[in-house]
């Protein structure tokens, strides 16, 4: 049985996106090497990727054409099975292949995905999906890449329904260029 891990980039004040959903605050990141290395280590234990529709659209436009020599996580991202939660997509093309669309019975299908995967299931971004996963108590771990910036307002990295969760830190790492990666077990 795999664990469901949400990996989220966040500002120091807890936002994962600007009020309009933009990610311009991430443009300031210089030296992605340590962040990519941390994600590569995370992917070693993963056997599937779960994305919401918006994040899927961003990833599908970029990762299939990414050069693995320049982007060390391109190979595992493109190799691992992908699942996209969407009530509007009928298909989810990914390079020469397809991601599986989960459009109905979403909590049950995600629970089944966790039960059938031998490794962890990683969720990147996907704020709408993250809210659902917390509400349905399907999250096992929260992995935050906290960037050294403050937005003051925006879309929260985790939903209000996470307020009742107990987060137990189990690792922390300083990343270039001054960010911090913190992993929490959700109980």
DSSP strand count: 11
* Largest pleated sheet: 9 strands, mixed
* Helix/strand structural class: alpha/beta
Shape designation = globular
Please, could you describe this protein's structure?
It comes from Crystallibacter crystallopoietes. It contains 5 helices and 11 strands. The longest helix is centred in the first third of the chain and has 12 residues, at 33-44. It is of the alpha/beta class. It has a single domain, classed as 3-Layer(aba) Sandwich (Dihydrofolate Reductase, subunit A), CATH 3.40.430. A 9-stranded mixed beta sheet has the order 5-6-4-3-7-1-8-11-10. Strands 2-9 form a two-stranded antiparallel ribbon.
Please give a handful of descriptors for the protein shown.
187 residues, 5-amino-6-(5-phosphoribosylamino)uracil reductase activity, globular, 33% strand, DHFR-like_dom_sf, 5 helices, Dihydrofolate Reductase, subunit A
Could you give a quick summary of the protein structure above?
This protein is α/β, with parallel strands linked by helices and 187 residues long.
């Amino acid at each position: 049985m795999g664990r469901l891990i949400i990996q989220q980039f966040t500002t120091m004040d807890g936002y994962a996106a600007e009020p309009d959903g933009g990610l311009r605050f991430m443009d300031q990141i210089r030296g992605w090497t340590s962040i990519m290395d941390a994600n590569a280590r995370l992917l070693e234990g993963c056997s599937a990727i779960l994305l919401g529709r918006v994040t899927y659209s961003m990833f599908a436009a970029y990762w299939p054409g990414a050069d693995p020599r320049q982007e060390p996580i391109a190979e595992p991202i493109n190799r691992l099975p992908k699942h996209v939660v969407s009530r509007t997509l009928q298909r989810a093309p990914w390079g020469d292949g397809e991601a599986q669309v989960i459009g109905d019975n979403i909590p049950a299908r995600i629970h089944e995905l966790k039960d059938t995967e031998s490794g962890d299931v990683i969720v990147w971004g996907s704020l709408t999906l993250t809210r659902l996963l917390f509400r349905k108590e399907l999250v096992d771990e929260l992995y935050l890449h906290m960037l050294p910036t403050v937005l003051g307002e925006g879309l929260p990295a985790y939903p209000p329904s996470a307020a009742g969760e107990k987060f137990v830190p189990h690792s922390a790492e300083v990343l270039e260029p001054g960010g911090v990666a913190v992993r929490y077990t959700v109980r």
